[in-house]
Amino acid sequence: MAGTVFFSVSMSLDGFIAPDSPEELMGQQWMELQHWVFRQRFFRENLKLGTGGEEGRDNDIVRETFERTGASVMGKRMFDAGEQMWPEDPPFHTPVFVVTHEKRAPWVRQGGTTFHFVNDGIESALRQARDAAGDRDVRVSGGGETIVQYLNAALVDEFHVALSPVLFGSGIRLFRGVEAGRVALDLVRAEPSPKTTHLYYAVHAR
């Protein structure tokens, strides 16, 4: 049976998930946005950032998101930004399907991560990701434009937003371009923590 299709992102209070320029990734604002996740033990171990880190509900959420994911889908812009920063053992440890016009052979990395480049659209990428994921879930990793494409195509079942106490002022908005008249949401639950508030939504066609 096919698993759930979901996305999970950190978002600023004014609705942004990333700076405009890939060169600004790892800058002060983005680090503040992701501050809650970089503190967690599971995240640090997965990215080989060293020992230590916090345990608790935030750490559990990071681990649960990783463990439920059997394959990921992402856009070319996110891949291009990450290709320069991910280590030889990227944090996915599953197949990743990149939606792109570029024709490229699969890029095999350490730890079970292989990037597959899909040239025939988001639905094809999702079908391949579902096949690869088996009975686990498919995560739409990003970026914002790719997430919106899947939302507008009614291909997302649920999502998690970690709302961080930071303002960007500009950047990439999570829901820029969403066809709001076609998307209905149900709040499933909200979990506050010292550095973020976790919001979970189920997605339905309106």
From TrEMBL:
Domain Bacterial bifunctional deaminase-reductase C-terminal: 4-196
Family matches, as InterPro entries: DHFR-like_dom_sf (IPR024072), RibDG_C (IPR002734), Riboflavin_Biosynth_HTPR (IPR050765)
Source superkingdom: Bacteria
An example Gene Ontology molecular-function term: 5-amino-6-(5-phosphoribosylamino)uracil reductase activity
Protein name: Dihydrofolate reductase
Gene3D superfamilies in the cross-refs: Dihydrofolate Reductase, subunit A (3.40.430.10)
Any one Pfam family match given in the protein's UniProt record, by short name: RibD_C
BP GO terms, sorted: riboflavin biosynthetic process
